[in-house]
Amino acid sequence: MSSTDDTNVMVDIRSVHKSFGPLEVLKGIDLTVRTGEVTVVLGPSGSGKSTLLRTVNHLEKVDRGLISVDGALIGYRRSGDRLRELPEREVLKQRTRIGFVFQDFHLFPHLTVLENITEAPVSALRRPRREAVEAARRLLERVGLADKAGA
In this predicted model, what pLDDT tens digit does every residue of 80-133 receive, in sequence order? Predict the structure, then answer.
């Protein structure tokens, strides 16, 4: 957690650096997002927006710096004064708590809307299919797309 001492901090990004070869994309990024805030990451194409967002759920590993979500370090565990990278299965567990919508949706074209929504809860979270379908139908209803479930 950052030095803000604010218990309402949901996402805390501190001094994050990320390079791809000689190209430094993220140069010491600091960002605090508090619970209930809406934050926009805005910039021209190639400025590092997607890279920054991918570091939040450890799809991209940072070269330096720390990221925590709801007080938990993402991708790492403290061991005394050192950081140890988490095994992939623990990183996957962390990702289940972080909502993320990709710029390109990458839906399965051979599945219906309902099947696309239920795939992750059933496959990754091992939820019973019936429970996942009920939850998906509620979500579709909530956003006014219930009539598109079979599309």
Answer: 888 899 998 899 888 888 877 666 667 888 999 999 999 888 887 889 999 999
Handedness of CA 46, 38, 122, 106 (dihedral sign): negative
Residue ranges of domains in the chain, CATH in brackets:
9-86 (3.40.50.300), 113-148 (no CATH)
Beta-bridge mates of residue 9: 34
DSSP string spanning 8-76?
TEEEEEEEEEEEETTEEEEEEEEEEEETT--------TTSSHHHHHHHHTTSS--SEEEEEETTEESSE
Contact yes or no for 52/41 (Cβ under 8 A) = yes
